[in-house]
Design brief:
This is BPL/LPL catalytic domain-containing protein. GO terms for molecular function: biotin--[biotin carboxyl-carrier protein] ligase activity. Pfam families: BPL_C, BPL_LplA_LipB. The chain contains ten helices and 15 strands. With about 375 residues, it is of the alpha+beta class. The chain folds into two domains: about 260 residues, 2-Layer Sandwich (BirA Bifunctional Protein, domain 2), CATH 3.30.930; about 60 residues, SH3 type barrels (Roll). Strands 1, 2, 3, 4, 5, 6, 7, 8 and 9 form a nine-stranded mixed sheet that branches. Strands 10, 11, 12, 13, 14 and 15 form a six-stranded mixed sheet that branches.
């Protein structure tokens, strides 16, 4: 029985269990494994990330989060969504994720083996891979053939280290946090269940310690308001806007002009969450077993700004400049400076051009 969450938390509108065979529900021949994930969906929250943090102990008590069980907390809208540059900490830069209806706002609360904590630094980038693949799954399996056809011309890209782009603009952001809370082992009668989070050599009767990790994901799918009006200077887009853009280009190629008025199509958010959940579960299982290397080819092929001159903010007032050559096997950014030196950066943030110009105007150092 689900316990009442502490006041003033709202009650979930519904709970949906994903630990059923996805192919039975979809009926389209696509096979998905059984995954033990529970969805708690709300009409509105301040933030799915903040709610998950505040209710983590209750999720543990109700055994919705164990060494083998996940929860995905989702909402139709957020009143104060957060991003990587606005974590809610005192003094942190104010950068809210615009949260109108029509988008995906979800926080995954999941277990991670304590013995594999060194891999947490790859969570954000691996999660962007899952989002990019879910976008391709979503348009590729859409019931409207026109969406499938247009989707073939979309190529989601990933930006180091936590964004997904479509057609040169940001469509998704990822925020990963480890609050330092242990999760309990699964009930003994379920310990034999297959899980990508137990080593293949682990005994079914001995479960290694696991920590709770929060993976917050926002995806602009079909926003009911104009994002550009509420998110300035961030170059954002949505899946619908990207599809409309492709359709408009196709119209121009056919008749030499005439702007498209937009596609009359349904973009099912629950279906997107279903596909995203499977991709994230699969991707983090691969990370658990093989580290970052299995993702290196995909990321380097889809890496935003690869081969271009960029500026990286090192968070201490220092800005590094050079050509982005790609990522290495450890997920670090490879930056070739003007002097020819190859720098390996494990932290930092790629700056937007307008932002860099403002900081240079303030006299910040560039090297």
């Amino acid at each position: 029985m689900l316990q009442a969450f502490p006041s003033p938390s709202p009650s979930p509108v519904f709970r949906r269990f994903f630990d059923v065979d996805g192919s039975e529900r979809r009926g389209d021949g696509i096979k998905f494994p059984h995954i033990p994930v529970t969805q708690l969906h709300f009409d509105s929250l301040e933030s799915t990330q903040k709610w998950s943090q505040a209710n983590l102990q209750t999720l543990k008590t109700d055994r919705l989060v164990t060494s083998k069980r996940w929860v995905v907390v989702s909402a139709d809208t957020q009143s104060s969504g957060i991003g990587t540059r606005n974590t809610g900490e005192a003094g942190s830069p104010h950068r809210q994720w615009s949260s109108p209806r029509g988008n995906v706002y979800a926080t995954y609360v999941l277990p991670w083996p304590q013995e594999k904590m060194s891999l947490l630094l790859h969570f954000a980038q691996v999660s962007t891979v899952a989002v990019a693949m879910a976008i391709e799954d979503f348009v590729g399996s859409h019931p409207d053939p026109s969406v499938v056809a247009l989707g073939q011309r979309l190529r989601p890209e990933v930006k180091w280290v936590n964004d997904v782009w479509l057609r040169g603009q940001k469509v998704s952001g990822v925020l990963c946090e480890c609050p330092g809370v242990m999760v309990d082992p699964e009930d003994s009668h379920l310990e034999g269940a297959a899980s990508p989070f137990l080593s293949s050599s682990s005994s079914a009767s001995v479960c290694p310690p696991h920590m709770a990790v929060l993976v917050g994901i926002g995806v602009n799918v079909d926003p009911q308001t104009d994002l550009s009006a509420s998110v300035k200077d961030q170059g954002v887009t949505s899946l619908r806007a990207a599809l409309d853009s492709v359709a408009a280009e196709a119209d121009e190629n056919v008749d030499g002009g005439g702007a498209s008025e937009g596609l009359a199509l349904n973009l099912d958010l629950q279906e997107f969450i279903f596909l995203l959940t499977h991709r994230l579960y699969e991707s983090l299982g691969k990370l658990r077993e093989g580290g970052f290397e299995p993702f290196l080819k995909f990321v380097n092929e889809r890496l935003v700004l690869r081969g271009q001159h960029i500026h990286v903010d090192m968070d201490g007032g220092r800005i590094l400049a050079g050509v982005l050559e790609g990522l290495d096997v450890d997920g670090a950014l490879l930056l070739r400076t003007e002097s020819g030196e190859l720098l390996t950066l494990h932290t930092g943030r790629i700056m937007k051009e307008k932002e860099r110009e403002r900081q240079e105007g303030d006299g910040q150092e560039t090297s």
